[in-house]
Specification:
Blueprint: H1 3-7, E1 20-24, H2 27-30, H3 33-45, E2 52-57, H4 69-74, E3 79-85, E4 91-96
Parallel strand pairs: 1-2
Antiparallel strand pairs: 2-4, 3-4
């Protein structure tokens, strides 16, 4: 966890028993790739089994395969897929929990 992580608001403070989207493309996320990764993992942990979370990552970090997919693969038996690039330049990765 970086110093910026400690000051950042959590991506969620509730467990989602439905499919949802995690906004990881705020200006704060643009400044800290590790914050994006850490909060992506937190979003997954806050999603109940049988649902998915759309991780919407900041475009400044490039395609999520460049910085996020290895972490997702290391996190265990998660199914994830690239959905699309947003009009604003961000990227959507869907993680099935």
């Amino acid at each position: 966890m970086t110093a910026l992580d400690e000051d950042a608001e959590p991506i969620t403070d509730t467990v989602h028993d439905n499919s949802w989207s995690a906004n990881l493309e705020t200006p704060r996320h643009a400044d800290d790739r590790q914050l994006v990764v850490d909060q992506a993992l937190a979003a997954i942990e806050h999603t109940t089994s049988g649902n998915h979370v759309n991780l919407v990552t900041h475009g400044d970090h490039g395609h999520p395969s460049e910085f996020l997919y290895e972490t997702l693969a290391d996190a265990g038996s998660l199914d994830y897929e690239y959905i699309d690039q947003c009009g604003c330049g961000g990227h959507v990765t869907r993680v099935h929990v």
